[in-house]
Design goal:
- The protein is globular.
- It has one helix at 3-16, and strands spanning 22-24, 29-31, 58-73, 86-104, 107-125, 128-135, 138-152, 155-167, 186-187, 190-195, 201-212, 214-215, 227-228, 232-242, 247-258, 263-264, 267-268, 275-287, 290-303, 306-318.
- By secondary structure, it is mainly β.
Length: 319
């Protein structure tokens, strides 16, 4: 087989199932490089929602539990593939952050760390099954800049810039169908905001950019030396209404759009770009200094990814 035939065959594989691996459970947790394909790594899709831009000096601890179930996989045109049976992923992400009273450019300076623990079951076909559990890739945020006291259209605005780097600490083996680690370094900065549009209504969002390094232990079935996931933009968005001082209800969503092709041995893979939109209701309840968030999302407009539903339960407490 010559190089052109080899590249053509690999492109066909990516078109068929470009992303059996799935980003789940907020930052840094999911099943990666599953099924011998090139996939985007796990990113924050829906893990943050109401009041995301609010923060102040001190410590913050969050624990996020998530569950994702996808009974179908989609191709580059969004059509359901006939063979895959499904994927289920459960995860817990421990998030610790600190903001100091020191300021840079008028913003409080801080840092954060996220540690994911993942359990997955991948059942694509009789010849492609895998499962397992473990600690996923760590996410290190060496710099947070939190601005408070700003205003937008005369209403309070809180916003934050975060520099996040994902470190390939999770188990990754190119011979396996599924992995809890992606085997790559990732640069994933974000800007988050909350606008208090009235005494009871708030609007929040978080915008990310994603860059992924080369994977030097790609799926063995590709017969490749390296793979590299494409660049992507993704965002979370939400609005909520305060029914009482402690109870909020509203809606939230996320969107991801891959903006460059996946690559195998440096060759762009046409038709490999991923996208997804998730929408659903949510609520938050604050009591005794802690806040509990619950969100459910149903996915639509999916390309080259599994299509399913995900649930988040997040506990947050400042100290």
């Amino acid at each position: 087989m010559n190089r052109r035939q080899s590249v053509s065959r690999r492109r066909g594989r990516v078109r068929a199932i470009a992303a059996l691996g799935l980003a789940l459970a907020g930052l840094g947790a999911g099943v990666c490089q599953a099924g011998g394909q090139v996939t985007l790594p796990p990113v924050n899709l829906g893990s943050s929602s109401f009041l995301d831009g609010l923060a102040g000096p001190g410590w913050l601890v969050k624990e996020t539990l998530s569950y994702y179930s996808a009974p179908r996989f989609t191709d580059a045109d969004g059509h359901a593939l006939s063979r895959p049976d499904g994927i289920v992923v459960a995860a817990a992400v421990t998030h610790v952050a600190f903001l100091s009273k020191l300021k840079l450019l008028g913003a409080h300076i801080g840092a954060e760390l996220l540690v994911p623990v993942v359990r997955f079951d991948l059942d694509v076909a009789p010849a492609l099954q895998d499962g397992g559990a473990g600690i996923g890739d760590l996410v290190v945020g060496p710099l947070l800049l939190q601005w408070n006291g700003h205003s937008l259209f005369g209403r309070p605005l809180h916003h934050r810039l975060g520099i996040n780097v994902t470190v390939p600490t999770g188990r990754h083996d190119g011979r396996r169908a599924g992995n809890v680690g992606h085997g790559t370094w990732q640069f994933n900065p974000h800007w988050a905001f909350t606008s208090m549009v009235s005494s009871r209504w708030e609007l929040s969002g978080r915008m990310h950019y994603l860059w992924v390094s080369k994977n030097h232990d790609p799926p063995a079935s590709l017969g490749a030396t390296t793979t590299q996931a494409g660049q992507a933009a993704h965002a979370n968005f939400s609005f909520s209404y305060a029914l009482t001082n402690g109870l909020r209800v509203g809606a939230a969503g996320y969107a991801l759009k891959q903006i460059t092709d996946h690559r195998i041995d440096g060759v762009d893979q046409a038709g490999s770009r991923e996208q997804v939109i998730g929408l659903g209701p949510g609520l938050s309840w604050s009591v005794a200094g802690s806040t509990l968030f619950a969100n459910v999302y149903l996915e639509t407009a999916v390309r080259n990814r599994p299509k399913g539903a995900r649930f988040f339960l997040r506990w947050s407490r400042p100290f």
